[in-house]
Amino acid sequence: MTTITPFLWYDDEARQAAEHYVSLFADSRIDSVAETPDGHVLVVEFTLLGRPCRAMNGGPGHPHSDAVSFQVDVDTQDELDRVWDALLADGGRPSVCGWLFDRWGLAWQVTPSMMGELMTGSGDPAANARVYEAMMDMQKLDIAALRAAAAGR
């Protein structure tokens, strides 16, 4: 069977990053840790929201960029706030439109699960434009404000 697995490069904190990520989401766990003969962590295999991932301590020279990110869809504002705050903890930085960079520089999008519906589902171009404009003024997304924009309030 052919599969695809995200493989993330870290300078030297792959285990710490994987442990942080799996602590945030249900159906997530560390599956294995491969070490070099001298006991340094080389590769961490982990499951994140039921999907396999790998992280490697490869040393400097290959920083993360927002060209590749993880998008996390959440159902409620409370869950959005919890995930957003946890990913920003200890040195992350917010960006725009629901994007942020965690303390290791990995890009994340924390978005409402109904975002697609809010952006295009109404079939009303004016409503879609209002949602887009509201989103463009946000860092962390505000579900109530996005719904209000869609409704024209």
From TrEMBL:
Transmembrane segments: none annotated. It comes from the Bacteria. Residues 3-111 form the PhnB-like domain. Pfam families: 3-dmu-9_3-mt (PF06983). This is 3-demethylubiquinone-9 3-methyltransferase (Glyoxalase superfamily). It comes from Curtobacterium luteum.
